[in-house]
TrEMBL record:
Localisation: Nucleus
GO CC, alphabetical: nuclear chromosome
Domain of life: Eukaryota
An individual GO BP term: meiotic DNA double-strand break processing
Keyword Flavoprotein: no
Cross-referenced InterPro entries: Meiotic_Spo11, Spo11/TopoVI_A, Spo11/TopoVI_A_sf, TOPRIM_Topo6A/Spo11
Name this protein carries in UniProt: Related to Spo11-Coprinopsis cinerea
Domain Topoisomerase 6 subunit A/Spo11 TOPRIM positions: 210-375
Compositionally skewed regions (Acidic residues) per UniProt: 1-14
Region (Disordered) location: 1-26
Residue ranges crossing the lipid bilayer per the database entry: none
Organism: Serendipita indica (strain DSM 11827) (Root endophyte fungus)
Length: 397
């Protein structure tokens, strides 16, 4: 579990939610302040207030096809909503575990799940007229995560799950889904990462040499279009994936499965910006997030190797000062928050980089490696990634 203060929890959760495709654009300080103000203004509500709503919910008023939350088909409630203010009404989390049970036990579970979905619909109804449209789904996400944590289950057990935004490339990977469909990776184009609960099996070719997770879609596309997963100086095929910024659950599930399923000789590399948010993303891939701490066992890849970019390294490479960026107030606040984390979720090597950023008042994006121009006729990004990977393999000999 990741220990965090209430402020750090809110900051981390806002970062995680605002990077989702359903909250695109909800990232600046003004929106952050609006979100926290909204949450503060609603924190005094009694649970009973949230449950007071008209149960005849118009499906079109809350279901948004193609983005945001995927909600299973509507059903007709058969019981009153559970009042969580009454202790004797709270059901043991184990009651949500499915299996071979007596008929009456299955009925109770069905009723419980229906009541949970009623709670979700109640929350949607409660915020339907919220002035800040972007806040609607954030509150829904908060409610879903709180319910999942309360019952000790995954979000999918509540019949609600976040849509996937992550992509991957690499023909060495094929994914068999529970419905029998096989998703085959490609070396020159992206493939959408399926939700973890839809995955039956990962099939990886034996000659795979590495896995690389990158922060940005633009960097991913550059590597993918160059067929880096097959054509590289390492002469080892690999897999590249990205969660397009702050990673979605599906991307974290895929990286976890690869990290835990592949032999230790196949490293899991990570390439992120040399800024506080890049290192935060790196930490989420490796050690999990605050808001999803009840599910982190299936979402982490602790053997991730950070190959860049690092501010200390960019200076040694002669990257011009003009290609560096200055830290803003939000960056400094994030830096200080990350430095307070325990070493088990923020290793000293990473903290040293954070301190260097703070000392210099600078940060850099991955694109800074382009300042050197073409190297040996190749794009500097490709050369940079190859050099960092080769350095790792040489050090392991």
């Amino acid at each position: 579990m990741i220990d965090a203060s209430e402020d750090e929890y809110e900051e981390g959760l806002l970062e995680e939610l605002s990077s989702s495709p359903m909250f695109e654009g909800f990232r600046d300080d003004a929106d952050s302040d609006a979100f926290l103000e909204f949450m503060d203004s609603n924190s005094e509500q009694e649970p009973s207030d949230i449950l007071e709503f008209d149960q005849q919910v118009d499906e079109n008023a809350w279901q948004d096809e193609g983005e945001g939350l995927d909600v299973l088909p509507e059903y007709t409630p058969t019981t009153d909503i559970i009042d969580l203010t009454q202790e004797d009404e709270v059901t043991d989390p184990e009651a949500l575990e499915f299996g071979s049970e007596p008929e009456e036990e299955l009925d109770e579970k069905t009723i419980l799940l229906q009541n949970i979905q009623d709670l979700i619909l109640a929350t949607v109804k409660q915020i339907a007229n919220c002035a800040e449209g972007k806040l609607d789904r954030i509150v829904i996400e908060l409610a879903v995560d709180d319910l999942a944590a309360t019952f000790g289950v995954e979000r999918s057990a509540l019949l609600v799950r976040a849509s996937s935004k992550g992509i991957f490339c690499g023909s060495v990977l094929s994914i068999r889904l529970v419905n029998g469909t096989v998703i085959q990776g490609n070396d020159d184009q992206a493939t959408l990462t399926p939700a973890g609960e839809d995955v039956e099996e990962l099939v990886v070719e034996e000659d795979i040499g590495w896995v690389l997770v990158v922060e940005k879609e633009a960097i991913f596309q550059t590597l993918c279009q160059a067929e880096f997963t097959r054509i590289n100086a390492l002469r080892k095929p690999g897999i590249i994936l990205t969660g397009k910024g702050y990673p979605d659950i599906a991307s974290r599930q895929l990286l976890h499965k690869l990290s835990s399923g592949l032999p230790e000789t196949v490293p899991i590399f990570a390439l992120v910006d040399a800024d506080p948010h890049g290192i935060e993303i790196l930490s989420v891939y490796a050690f999990g997030s605050i808001s999803m701490r009840h599910q982190n066992d299936g979402l982490t890849a602790e053997r991730v190797v950070w190959i860049g970019v690092m501010l200390t390294e960019l200076e040694r490479r002669g990257v011009a000062a003009g290609d560096m960026l200055g830290l803003n107030q939000r960056d400094r606040k994030k830096l200080e928050s990350l430095l307070r984390r325990e070493d088990r979720v923020m290793p000293q090597l990473w903290k040293n980089e954070l301190r260097f950023m703070l000392e210099r008042g600078q940060k850099a994006e991955i694109e800074a490696v382009y300042s050197g121009g073409l190297q040996d006729g190749r794009q500097p990004l490709l050369s940079y990634v190859e050099e960092e990977m080769q350095s790792y393999f040489v050090a392991q000999m």
